[in-house]
Structure formats: C-alpha cells, structure tokens
Amino acid sequence: MDRKKTLLYINSALYGLWAILMAGSAIRIYRDGAAYQAQGHPEAWIFTREKALEAFGTFAPVLALAVVVTIICVVKGCRDEKQDMPVADPELIGIYKAERDAVRNAKTEAAKAKRLRAVKIAVLAAAVVFVIAGILNGSMEDMLIKAINICTECVGLG
Amino acid sequence: MGNNKRRLIQLYSALLYNAHMKGFIKGEIYTGNTKAMCVPGFNCYSCPAAVGACPLGSLQNALASSGNRAGFYVFGIIMLWGLMLGRTVCGWICPMGLIQELLYKIPTPKIMKSRVTHYLSYLKYFFLAVFAVMMPLWYGLKHGMAVPGFCKYICPAGTLEGAVGLLANPGNASFFKMLGIFFTRKFVIMMIIGLACIFCYRSFCRFVCPLGAIYGMFNKLALVGVKVDMDRCTHCGTCAMSCKMDVRHVGDHECINCAKCMDVCKQDAISLKAGKVTLIAPAGGCADDKPDSQAKRARAGRIAWGIAIAILAFALLWYNVLDHTGAVADVSGTDKIAEQLQDGGNQPGDELPDFTIECMDGTQFHLADSRGKVVFINLWATYCGPCVQELPYFNELAAAHSGDAEILAVHNSMSKDDIPAYLADRGWDKLHFALDTGDKLVWNIVGGSAAMPQTIVLDRDGKVIYNQVGSVTPELLESLYAKAASEI
C-alpha cells in the first residue's frame, strides 16, 4: 500500500475511533447515571456539564490527531481518487442505459411540457389556497407558537 | 462552473437562516414573528440562532395538531418551496447539506455509489412515512400528544443545533438535568450520521432526510433546476455516471440540482435555469444565447450578490442589534431568574411570591391559601408531548396525597387550542388547571422559560425546593413530595 493511501486509512481510523469513543462515553455516562438514579436517587443528574467536558477532554487528543492527519493529507494532496471518477459498476451502468433509452423513447417534449404545466398550475393554486386557509384557520399562529417554544424532548434534551 | 459559488450560497443561506447570532451568546432562542415563516432548508428552530421555522419540524407539529385544525399553512409553504426550488434547496441552500459536504471533504477512503446505495436512497421515504407523518398523526389523533417522531428520535440537526447549541452556553447548565436516554440515543445517532457523511457523500441527504424526499417529489415541477437541452444531448450518460447522488438521470427525484454535471458534459447540454432564464450556463453557452447573454448574466449575478449581501447585513443588524421584541424568552430559565424578583424569588430556598390565578373550573387558586401543604406548579402546553405525558403522574401524586398536596398546572398563555375541551375526557381531576394570563403572571413569578415542561415544588412554608425544566418521573415526584413534606 502506498504512503498516501496509508494516510487516508489512518485518518479514517482516527475519526472513526473518536466517534466511537464519544458515543461510547455518552452511553457510559447514561448507564452509570441511570443506575445511580435507580438506586434511590431520582433527583440525581445523569449528565452534567463537568462529565460532558471531561469526556470531550479525554478524547480531544484523538480528534486533534485526526485533524493533524487531515491537514497533512490536504498538504500532501492525499485523496481517494475514485471519488472523482465516473461510476464503474456495470449493474449501475446498465440501469443508466435503460433510463436513457426510456427518456429517448418517451412522449414528445411538447406533450410532456403541456401536462407538466397543468400540474404546476394546479399545485401552485393548491399551495396558495392552503397558505390562505392556514392563515385563516390559525395554523400559522400554531406554527409560530411551536417555533418560539422549545419542546425539550423534541430536540433530544429530555 | 461555480462550485465555489455554490459553497458561498450554502454558507450565505446558513448564515441567513441563523442570523440571530446573539442567541448563542445569551443561550436563548429567537421568539420573533419571522418564526412564522418556514425556511426552505433543514434548520432546527430550537437552534439559538434560528430566525425561521424548520419545515420538517413544522410539518410534524401540524400533523400532530390535526385533531384541532388542519395544518394548511405548513402544507402550503412546503408546496410553494417545492414548486419554486424542488431539490435545489438540498443542493444550494440547506445548512445540513453544507455540513455534510464539508465532512465529505475530510480525506479518507470513500464509499462510492452503487446498486446498494440506490436501494438505500429509498429509505428516506420510509423515514418520511413512519417518523414524520404516521407517528405525529397517530399520537396526535389517538392520544392528543404532539410527538414529532423524526425530531424526537432521529434528527441530527436538532441534536447539533438545538440541544448542543443550547447546552454549549454556560447559562444553560441546568439543562443538563434533563439529559437522559433521549439525548444519549440522539447523540449516538448524530455521531453515526456524521461519521457516515465523512465516508459516503451526503449520507443523511441520500438515505435519511424526509425533507429531501418531499422536495424530490416536486423536482420535476420546480421552477429552478438543472435542465438538459435534448437537441445537444447525445445520451452518453456521463452526467448520471459522474454524479455522486443516486440519480438515474439529470433532474430526477434524487437530483439536488447542484449543477456539477455541467462540468462533465462535453456537449454543453446542461444548464441551471429558473423557468426560461438561465442562471448558470455551460462553458460554451446555451443554444438560445444571444451574443451579449453571458455579459448580461454576469451583470445580473453581480447585482444579485449585492442585494443578497445587503439583505444579510440588514438581517444580522436587525436580529442582533435592533430587534429587542423577539428576544424575550430566556431559555436559561432557572439560572438567571433570582434578580428578576424583588419580593421573594423562585430559586431553591426562596419564598415564592404570592399570586392568585383563575382556574378553568371557575375557582381561584390563591397560593397563600395553600400554606401548610406541599405545592407543585407545573408549566405545560397541549402541544408539548412530554408535558402531556407527565400530567398523569401529577394526578396520581395528588390522589395519593389528597389534602396534603396541591398541584397547579398552568398552561402557556400562547395557545390556539380549546384547552377545557382537551382536558374534558382526560380524567386528571385532581389537578388545578389554569391558563396563564396574557402578561404571563405565573410564568414570570416562577421563572418560566421557552422550554417546557417545567416543575416547581414548594414546601409547606411556601419555599421553593425544586425548580427545573424537563420531564419528571413518578419516582422523582414522590421523592420531591417526601422532601417538601419533611421540610418544616
């Protein structure tokens, strides 16, 4: 394996490791905290700012190392060349060919455009009617109320 | 072509959606009227900087409220965005798209599109149907609870912008109290999605995003989009083969109209258009170009950028300096309230100032009358799922300690719902229900915030022993009762 490819693999391993460690530490904090709560301390906090900062701080060197490797990769021009190449999967190429044939054999552009225009006008009319109906039936105000209040469970706070 | 131009527009829209920058510093969300407008892209409205509503969150909440009234407004707005832009939103003005593309820039071995990714791209329709449509509808209609399934169980934007955005502010240290299984699960999901985006181009967008699934349905109808000049096209298929998305042909439901295919089309058959107006032309120009078309486009582009920059500058100035009316909700809640109250306080150890509020059954709740009893005050709203979920616990507590515990459940003053009708058949008859007055009397006294639910517990002397935002459990309530009852 050449050196550039090795760097790419090291980089991906570091980011993968960091993500696993962070996710793992969140699970560990939760498990320990929930166990403590279950032991008759319902008021105890599962997560605290200190615990979160400690977990982040512990694994920050892994992230820092990953960032350093990323910078080295960028400076040295290491990148997976196949990301710039057209797809080579024969099955996919077969799908694309079938799709192209379908496009070529489709109805004439004029007939298609006429049908599309009618659908567009219908959808536009429906959208405008919906917006006006929404303003009148109070669903706009509903939306505002929900947007300016945080539902803690919805954003994952709890 | 302008991949750099696209990146600039992505950055621009992310900034414009999140122009309330001082929200990060203050740890508060924006509560002004512009939040009555859905932004086109995926952007959590609980992000402290967000100035508009997230279309997907709004859609789920509208579906959850279907029992009260149809969410026509949200449906109409999403249809309008879809009709105007289709998946151009994903490619050009979605902050989540920008984040995913930046993550993909990290140099690692990449997973390229294949037949498997083609199949996986249909997963987002599953997420749309189950989490964004069926779950809110089911819980809303069957249980009268707002459960925006996608926000609650999956959305990485909500975790990153909403939860982490709020938690990052030291003023919101009390928010950590709420964190439990939901946060853990969503944090792990966010890490998985983030990691996937490093290796696989726009993984969230391609396989998970319900909003992309919705806009994909509009792609063929959209005014703005990548168009193919069939007179020039030789059907060589290079465009589809070079595209990193799971497109079968340019402009289909998977195409995000990023226009990168213009660079590989040797026939100059592809351009980005808004109706008949060419926004970005291929290097060799369009077939219908006049001699001065290129120059006109360049001039129009410069004018558009000038206007756009002026709008952004005004938005930043407005939301951060001039507009004080919107930024009233203090989500840092219990950490900053003490100084607001002169006559007593609402922090543990403080005596809560007296108040009287009219209950929905016509009686008056006078706080001073409940001296000698344990008092629970719960701030809730019909549209807040966790609030509704925990009210039965309060009712059970009141029943278990009848005569010794008074429980006042105060509904947020902002509501379009018929709350007495909502409560009619719930059986929560042990609780005193009140609607906070327009001046948010109780809300202000107890230190209510933009985050719900919130529970305040007073001992027999009327002193606060607990004041926290977040859900409670029956065990916690029982423990708080025992603590309050024993403090004389």
Ordered list of secondary-structure elements with their pairings:
The complex is a heterodimer of chains A (158) and B (488).
Chain A: H1 3-38, H2 49-76, H3 90-104, H4 109-137, H5 139-148, E1 150-151
Helix pairs in contact in A: 1-2
Chain B: H1 3-17, H2 22-26, H3 55-64, H4 72-85, H5 88-92, H6 95-104, H7 115-120, H8 123-143, H9 149-153, H10 156-167, H11 181-199, H12 203-207, H13 210-218, E1 224-228, H14 238-242, H15 261-264, E2 270-274, E3 277-280, H16 293-322, E4 356-358, E5 364-366, E6 374-380, H17 385-400, E7 405-411, H18 419-423, E8 432-435, H19 441-446, E9 451-452, E10 454-458, E11 464-469, H20 474-486
Parallel strand pairs in B: 6-7, 7-8
Antiparallel strand pairs in B: 1-2, 2-3, 4-5, 6-10, 10-11
Q: Give the tally of structural domains of chain B.
A: 2
What multimeric state do the chains show? heterodimer
Total number of β-strand segments of chain A?
A: 1
Helix content class of chain A: over 70%
Q: What would the principal axes of the Cα set say about the shape of chain A?
A: flat
The span between the termini of chain B is 75 Å
Largest sheet of chain B: 5 strands, mixed
Q: Count up the helices of chain A.
A: 5
Uncertain residue ranges of chain B: 326-340
pLDDT averaged residue by residue of chain B: 87
- Largest interface chains and counts: A-B, 84 and 115 residues
Radius of gyration of chain B: 26 Å
Output the structural class of chain A: mainly alpha
For the terminal residues of chain A, how far apart are their CA atoms? 47 Å
For the record, the count of structural domains of chain A works out to 2
Number of distinct beta strands of chain B: 11
Return the string of H and E elements of chain A. Answer: HHHHHE
Question: Proportion of β residues of chain A?
Answer: under 5%
Helical stretch tally of chain B: 20
Global structural class of chain B: alpha+beta
